[in-house]
Amino acid sequence: MAEAAAPPSIVVALLFFLYITTNRPPFLVVEATWCVVRSDASDQAMLAGLNYACAAGADCVPIQSSGLCYLPNTIQAHASYAYNSYYQRRGSDPAACYFSGTATIAKTDPSYGSCVYPSSPSTAGGSVAPGGTSVPGTTPATSATLPPPGTTTAPLYGGRGLTPDMGSAVPDSPKSNASPELSIKAILFPVYFFILSFTF
Prior knowledge:
By secondary structure, the chain is mostly helical. It has four helices and two strands; from the N terminus they run αβααβα.
């Protein structure tokens, strides 16, 4: 005797239950984002943000003198890498990409040459626990200083990487929310399955 398949309405109900319990649509793909320095940020503000990010658990080893992201040796380049590391280790939380208004979220990968910017917590080499302390297995915090005058170099990579196209959306508070596009998809997902349940 053949087994009967579950009615479509039960399948839809189970998918809806899965959505509610995971708080994320099971088929929604989230686009990668990076946290980078705003082009209008002052050196002093970037330095303060760089020091904070490194002290709060960002992986700052790649921007040390022997690291793959040391060159170009500019505060903007080093701060962008540190900001992004901190942001990724905080689970790409938009509130972790503020740094007193000196940072913005970019949808263009700022990586260049052999310097690869992490694009997710799993590629950021660890995570940051609540309160800003590094989780075991992550790199130690470091402190940055401004390079001596005349020793900084301009970006060598044709404008790509350090100042990616950031779009018009600039977070203006540490409580920035996720993109409206993601929110709309998250709302419409259960509505779609609700409507689909009546078609069977």
